[in-house]
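I hope you will forgive my troubling you with a question about protein structure. The matter concerns a single protein, recorded as an amino acid sequence and a row of backbone structure tokens. Please examine both parts with care and let me know of anything in them that strikes you as inconsistent. Thank you for your consideration; the sequence and its tokens are set out here:
***
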Amino acid sequence: MLWRTILLRPQNYTRDGSLGYLSSRLREYLNRSQTLPLRIRLSGLSERALSRHPNTMIHWHALIDVLNFHSPRWENVQFSHILKPLLLKFERQIKGRLPILQTVHLSTNFPDFGPLTLDAFAICPKLRRFEYYGNARLGLAVPYDQLNFYGGGPVLTFPNSTTDFRSLKYLRLCSPHSLHPPYFIAPRFLSSRVETLDLVGSTHMLDYFRLPGLRTLSINYMFSSVQSIFEMIQHSSCTLTSLTLTTRAFTDETMIAVFQATPALTSLVLSHQESNTTDRLLDRLTVKHDLQIHTSLLLKLERLSVRLGDGITWSDISFLDMIKSRWYGISSCSITPTGCISRLQAIDIKLPHGQCFMISDILMNLQTEGLEVSITYN
């Protein structure tokens, strides 16, 4: 059998001093894989783990030496909980020896002692995706002009000129709620090429971005500043068509304001098990067919995904009225005095176990009429 995927958890071998056995087995597997490209997942060792046995440090460096020897075959690597000495080892052993590397996911496990430059990945002709997660300020020397995916946090560096991101399409940013943008990024970031922004944590980071080509926005876990979303959309002059919101801090006013700022949405994902939203929000999302001038929100919506938890106060009837208003009486695109109203094409809903039987029954009836329906249970 030829091996090409390697998952290493060396912490399981530190208590009894058997890390040397893991190194020898790794060498055997790598030799057995011959010339195949390698996918590597390595979880680093903490200082405490390295001190558990007298020989652990020696065997740990031997294991890394084996991996680095085969770096010309690295295709996809994920190194997590990495200490500073290991970064320096990479610097010495793999720089310029990564001809087929395409994806790097790096996370460090040491505090910020000041700026540190890492140029081990500076020469990677096929690198397309790079992510760095950690509190240490790393000056990353990577081929930015090749990347179509860049992400990380809470401390993520950017090149001096955003024109270096010639191919960037996807940007992922992670930051704690309490972290202010100046620590995250100094200059304002302007890129017309970024189409997808995945934000985990504080929305304050949006104040530092101008993304006129943005089409897809995902905000996860925290929703501290709605104003940041409005300003980013306004200053970027972008047209969002897909929005994902995963958070608990929803109110009717917040959601209505967000939807008013994103009228071109065709895809919406709402995941909030606990919420302050009420039927008032559902009423604003319900298409009123008897009105000449539509005041309903998101008239172009075609795909809707909703996770309903025990804390949701929506009534089943109001929710179903909203869905049916976007299915009945609308062709693929109905022309009205206020523009085109798109017909809902798909509904994906997660329901609490043992509840919402009316919703599931009626949605299944709509499925027989052509609506794409997916129902799962929490």
